[in-house]
Design brief:
Chain lengths: 365, 222
């Protein structure tokens, strides 16, 4: 278990704005994804845990070992922290072969153990035949595997990965993802992974920390995040959500429903917390939750097709105005003709509309 | 006439000793400057650059003050070794070292600072001590520019005149280095000796600079 509560402030410099990191989280064994835009403090968090950076305040505990405690003035050097770190550019030692890179990390193991351990990891990460090569003779994916193998040699208590999929193409990316899942299966240690790619986030995470401007906006399981982003900022950062400004027309707390005006159309809405009639509230829905129709009906909004994108899994139809809907290829073919002839409607099922802001009272009045 | 080769050999010996001392001391100071924040860091930075900028005679004068016969170091040395430190080949080594070391510190620091910080961090997080990090990662990665700087430092210590003259004197057969011998030969109208020494030193230095350039150029080997 990793427990992190840290703060660090950087004053404004000649070329940089002031930045304040203020975070708190726990990471159990499993994959914790640090998700957020660049410059939101994700890598700084990893560097603080690894010991490359000393926070101003707070504590870092790893399995009840104190790595950092500002109160007790404890700041363990990186070499005593037992954290495996995989760097963005892999940071393999360029003047050593793959085997020597691993041996460097195995230095603290007993002599007999060392060779066995190196052989074991070379094997497990399918780099045994590359052991005699230098890093510049390896491909990106091979470097990646060598670098992860090296970080695991000394059986660390936590594994920290800084944007490991950067610069890898799609197939290597999915190789990497299965590798990380494999590590997660075999080692019961917290794995922290920094990324700004939402797909990677949802593919790997047991828990997601959504970062923005030095704080953690939300800590949740990935499915929970998709189901309910909770706030406008989280929905915006995760991307892919249709976000609506809605006006509350009617409320029916007894039946847990409401009526809202969205894009100048009155539709059924979900139960809204803390809202009165006339309030403004932000709602969201995911593209796969919207339905495309070619005739008017309940909760359907008249729309004009802007363009349709062929995606790997689906067709993504963009109707502008935050009306982006996903549908299967076959369904799209069936709809297309009728839509072009009779016009398009997009249906937003009331159950899929989620409230992501508090009510803004009488904003229009 | 017979040419006296002693000054040339003495110069080479002194320069070799001075280069070795500068390398050990210079690398250590460069490592501290590149990796550590400590009180007085900028003072160390300034002092280690000064010999590059100061007139050699000023440097020699300081040396006389610090290791001269009446100084604290000078008296301790005399008590222990039984003879003065100044006006010996050892004093020439000290002067040459001081002359050569700023170059080594400056270049080595730049070389060490240019080593990929991720590699150094990786080494640290993999459990390496600072000592191991230096010998196994930082130094090998910075070795080419440091080797080039060492070669240039050798050339520089070969050429020291002013500081050596002031602290080691001009004693033929004992402390007269090549640079000083040339001056002497010209003064006393011994053109032949001066010419030979000048040519030998020139060729030697040119080949050293050539070597330094080649070392520097091949640095992107990986």
């Amino acid at each position: 278990m990793l427990r992190v509560t840290i703060g660090k402030t950087f004053p404004a410099g000649p070329e940089s704005a002031a930045f304040k990191l203020e975070i708190e989280f726990e990471a159990a064994p499993g994959v914790t994804v640090l998700y957020g835009p660049s410059g939101s403090g994700k890598t700084l968090t990893l560097d603080s845990i690894a010991g490359f950076v000393a926070p101003d305040s707070g504590r870092i505990l790893l399995n009840d070992r104190i790595l950092f405690d500002s109160g007790a003035r404890v700041h363990l050097p990186p070499r005593d922290r037992q954290c495996g770190y995989v760097f963005q550019n892999y940071a393999l030692f360029p003047h050593m072969t793959v085997r020597a890179n691993l041996a460097f990390a195995a230095n603290r193991l007993p002599r007999l153990e060392r060779h066995r351990r190196i052989a074991e990891l070379l094997d497990r990460f399918r780099i045994a035949d590359l052991a005699g090569r230098f890093p510049h003779e390896l491909s990106g994916g091979q470097k990646q595997r060598a670098s992860i193998a090296r970080s695991l040699i000394a059986s660390p208590d936590a594994l920290l990965l800084d944007e490991p999929a950067n610069g890898l193409d799609a197939s290597l990316r999915s190789d990497l993802h299965s590798l990380i899942r494999e590590i997660r299966q075999s080692l019961a240690i917290p794995i922290l992974l920094v990324t700004h790619n939402p797909e990677e986030c949802f593919a790997l995470a047991d828990q997601v920390l959504v970062y923005d401007a030095g704080t953690i906006l939300r800590r949740a399981a990935p499915l929970e995040l998709l189901r309910n982003p909770g706030t406008h900022d989280v929905a915006r950062l995760l991307g892919g959500f249709n976000i609506y400004e809605a006006e509350v027309i009617a409320l029916n707390p007894g039946r847990q429903t409401s009526r809202v005006r969205v894009l100048n159309t009155e539709i059924d809405g979900p139960h809204l917390r803390g809202c009165f009639l006339g309030d403004q509230v932000a709602l969201c829905a995911r593209p796969e939750e919207l339905r495309i129709a070619t005739s008017p009906g309940a909760n359907r909004i008249r729309a004009d097709l802007s363009h349709a994108l062929d995606r790997a899994q689906c067709i993504r139809a963009d109707f502008g105005d935050e009306l982006v809907a996903d549908t299967s290829r076959s369904e799209w073919l069936a709809l297309k003709e009728a839509g072009e002839r009779d016009g398009w409607w997009v249906e937003i099922p009331a159950a899929n509309l989620r409230q992501i802001s508090r009510a803004l009272r009488n904003a229009r009045k | 006439m017979r040419l006296d080769w002693f000054p040339l050999w003495l110069s080479l010996e002194v320069a070799t000793a001075a280069t070795l001392i500068s390398l050990a001391l210079g690398l250590w100071i460069a490592w501290l400057l590149a990796n550590r924040d400590f009180a007085g860091k900028s003072a160390v930075d300034v002092i280690s650059t000064l010999p590059l900028a100061l007139p050699p005679t000023v440097l020699g004068y300081y040396l006389l003050v610090v290791i001269g016969r009446s100084s604290w170091i000078g008296r301790v040395w005399e008590a222990v070794a039984g003879s003065p430190l100044v006006f010996t080949w050892r004093a020439a080594v000290i002067a040459s070292t001081l002359h050569a070391i700023p170059l080594l510190i400056k270049s080595s620091r730049a070389a060490l600072e240019s080593v990929d910080i991720a590699c150094e961090r990786a080494a640290r997080s993999l459990g390496a001590s600072e000592w191991r990090l230096f010998w196994r990662v930082s130094l090998p990665l910075a070795r080419r520019p440091i080797a080039a700087a060492t070669v240039l430092a050798f050339a520089r210590s070969l050429g020291d005149f002013g500081a050596t003259l002031m602290i080691a004197g001009d004693i033929p057969g004992r402390t007269q280095t090549a640079a000083i011998a040339i001056y002497d030969a010209v003064e006393s109208g011994n053109t032949m000796t001066a010419r030979v020494l000048v040519i030998v030193i020139s060729i030697l230095t040119a080949s050293i600079v050539l070597l330094a350039n080649r070392l520097e150029k091949r640095r992107c080997g990986y």
